[in-house]
Amino acid sequence: MSQLNREQLEECTKLLRNSVLLSSCTDEQLRKIASKMSRQYYEKGHFLMREGDRQTRLYVIADGEVVRQKLVGGKYHDVNTYMGGMTVGSLHILKQDPCYANSRCVSDVVAYELKHEDLDKALRSDPEFAHNVAHRKYTNSLRTPLFEQRPYKTPFLAVSIAASIESFYRAALNSVLNQQLTGVKMGALFPNMHIQVPTRIMYINGFKGLRQYFDSTSTFPDYYEDHPGVFRLSLAVAPGVLMTPISSILEASNAGHSNPEPMSRRWARGLVPRCAREVIFGIGLNQLSDYCEERVPTVIAGSAVRNAMGSLAAGVICGYLSHVVHNMSVLKLMAPHKSYSTLWEDYVKKSDTRLPQNIPTSIKPLVRYGMAFFAPVGFHIRTGQIVGSFIILNGTIKALHGLKVEWNSAPQ
Asked: Signal peptide: which range, if any (predicted)?
């Protein structure tokens, strides 16, 4: 028999529709769950749950405000706020997992409470209800925001092998792209590989290692409290900025046939646009590849195929977004005596030969700039280069990581 009167039962059922855990359930199923819930009153300052305690109850806030607070660096920081209509504790109640953070009432609160035992009985007695809950929980787990993607541990050896293989692919396409962009015939398809291979190994390990380091270190907790979105964005951007000098050495290795400057000076040419390119590459290799892989349709079950499709999608996005800054970086590297403004004008003029003949003269300048931005010379090569790099790197790392796990779990 329900502990709620008719009006409260309808209110609770309506509020449950907003629950992430139960949003795939029918109205009848929600009403059945609501009938097992009780209406509770909590005073300001009361803790609905404490960080680390087992989650035994789910709360649906009817009125008032609840704040979640996480212990970081010895201090509690506000993570987010729950108000009327929101659910607290839905992610951990199924298995009574430890609470992620404190949940404290910052005003008097009216909430509907569901015990784990009652939810468990409902799941066991109604297979259709259990299926709807499981489906929603699974699909919700595949919707991690871009800058909240968590890395898995990548062994140094696996990353190094992947980077060694990928360095030859990248070097070849770089030579082809530089030739198409500048008109200067390439000196070699694989130039200075004695420099490129070890530098590329250091470069890719830097991206992967910095991501894991930042993820495992609670640095600058005060900044996280005030601006969590900006904080996460900064940690995603940082590897690209820090790896720019190493990337510059790689680029300079490909440009010796056009730029006769010594390596000690050549590497710094085009540094600013190259930094922007590295930021895009780093986010693509780390967070965006995982983000896209997570969203591959569930009908595709093979982990290798899902990984490749995620890398493909991320590579297309990053390759396309980075083509302008990449090209400006290359042009400055190849012609260091020219200013960026002169290089930009030369870059835009390359679109002239590809303009349709029947375009009115009055709009030709606009179309030229549009072509330079959205369909520049060599953008298909650049996009293909990044797609291939992501697939080779992420695929090889994941395959070698899987072999290591199987080896360690094999009976001795």
From this structure: none
CATH placement of domain 6-141: 2.60.120.10
Domain ranges of the chain: 6-141, 146-409
Interstrand relation of 109-115 and 75-83 (parallel, antiparallel or unpaired): unpaired
Q: Which of 173, 205, 165 is nearest to 323 (CA)?
A: 173
SS3 state at 109: strand
Neighbours of 168 (CB within 10 A): 16
- Helix 116-125 to helix 27-34 angle (10° resolution) is 140
**Mind listing the pLDDT tens digit for each residue in 110-166?**
999 999 999 999 889 988 888 777 666 555 555 678 888 878 778 889 999 999 999
The total of other beta-carbon atoms located within 10 Å of residue 108's CB is 14
- SS3 category, 112: strand
d(CA 113, CA 99): 16
pTM, full prediction: 0.67
Longest dimension (CA), the chain: 86
